[in-house]
Amino acid sequence: MDLKDSISNNFLDGTFASHIERKQSSPPSVIVIGGGISGISAAHILHNASFKVILLESRDRIGGRIHTDYSFGCPVDMGASWLHGVCNENPLAPLIRGLGLTLYRTSGDNSVLYDHDLESYALFDMDGRQVPQQMVIEVGEAFKRILKETEKVRDEHSDDMSVLQAISIVLDRHPELRQEGLAHEVLQWYICRMEAWFAVDADMISLKSWDQENVLSGGHGLMVQGYLPVIKALAKDIDIRLNHRVIKISNGRSKVMVTVEDGRQFIADAAIITVPLGVLKRNLIDFEPKLPDWKVSAISDLGVGNENKIALHFNNVFWPNLELLGVVAPTSYSCGYFLNLHKATGHPVLVYMAAGRFAYDLEKLSDESVLNFVMLQLRKMFPHASEPVQYLVSRWGTDPNSFGCYSYDVVGKPEDVYDRLRAPLGNLFFAGEAVSMEHQGSVHGAYSAGVMAAGNCRRHLMERLGSLGMIQLISARDEVLEATVPLQISRI
Ligand SMILES: Cc1cc2nc3c(=O)[nH]c(=O)nc-3n(C[C@H](O)[C@H](O)[C@H](O)COP(=O)(O)OP(=O)(O)OC[C@H]3O[C@@H](n4cnc5c(N)ncnc54)[C@H](O)[C@@H]3O)c2cc1C
């Protein structure tokens, strides 16, 4: 590219940086770092507002922690798969219904413990015997009472503690809530489900924060066609550069210069950073000037959990028509469960889900060993289970593009951690699921964070660069209101 091309491109090679003045008539330029839903939504908004936008993504694909795999001949989400909050207030609802995507609702508003209605799962013990449904229901009730009692423990202590610690205090106080034998294993399974929601073990979940999330109404719906169509729709017409791993961000008074792994440099009026918190924690991006201490401490004050999925594709369906098939065990670490995609999508696929320390431990094994382990679990329930014809193993914890699955509140989390994470630094704006105070760890939270960062960046540049009459400002909200088709939900 010659100098002339570089200038007209507006994203300039660093060597020419000192020669460049932004032409009064040219639109402001923004570099978005990270091509997950947060970065893509930010780029989409700014692109529609006639800003010059370039998106730099380290992987060879877009979507980030949304990763719909099609190698089974059907969509399988190896990252996010549920829309949490199947309601019109969900910021993603208009887009999803506009695209005509179907949701399979796995739970209603009053679902027991987060995700699933009791009627649609079966638990088995280590010897493959099904746990009587009455016991599953009774222990579920006991678990709810235990959690209710932990609220008193919370009120009594000014310092935060882990949910596990609080449960143990409650069980000391209320021996009648303790469970023995098989019932104890079922209680561990409920704890395992809770750990899966936060993607960390119960000894790391904050008692003060665990139930403070503003959960949207409408229950939880699986994206039957996968999440990728949402990403593709938002990514349309955006200048996306794959295999561009950002290693350095220099934040000047009027320009931001971004350097990628192979040494190429891009310059724009502002940048929006949406890389995962796990990546920021590893200091894989060099900031110049260095990030202030309050930002560095915010990055370390929020946790990142881990969850992995092992998807199994079979020739035939040998399991019952239920949504979840669980194995109970003496510890929550040893409990496990399979999501039955056949019920939701009609495809013969089971997805084993592992969270917390266990998810990290699985990543120490080869794919083949992981498969062997998961098949052992499955054969506890169904001794004659056939071998899968294909399988997939995720490794979100060690993937250098994510280093974890999503953020969680650590025990003793400072109140203002989200404000500090989100706060811009001059021409640098921060988005991504981890900066979403209300809906952290979710796709819709990441989306909203991207929309918000784009809005803040746009306002900042308009103030800084003067009035931009030529810019046609189209907000996400305007587009959203056009979609009037209802959400398509099965199993209501
Ligand atoms: C296993 C799993 C299950 C989940 N289940 C659900 C669910 O059911 N429902 C739900 O709502 N949410 C779920 N989530 C969470 C949800 O996927 C995330 O909150 C959301 O997708 C995050 O989007 P993001 O844009 O903030 O980050 P990401 O999607 O991670 O995007 C960040 C992008 O930055 C890129 N990047 C990293 N480093 C660099 C670099 N140096 N330079 C350039 N690019 C870089 C990454 O490759 C990535 O594409 C799940 C996540 C996982 C992993």
TrEMBL record:
- Keywords annotated in UniProt: Oxidoreductase
Extract one GO molecular function annotation from the record: polyamine oxidase activity
| Signal peptide as annotated in the record | none
| One cellular component (GO) term of this entry | peroxisome
Family of the protein in this entry: Belongs to the flavin monoamine oxidase family.
Q: What are the leading ranks of the lineage? A: Eukaryota, Viridiplantae, Streptophyta, Embryophyta, Tracheophyta
Query: What is the protein's name according to its record?
Result: Amine oxidase domain-containing protein
Q: Which residues bind FAD?
A: 38, 246
Give the organism, scientific name: Camellia sinensis
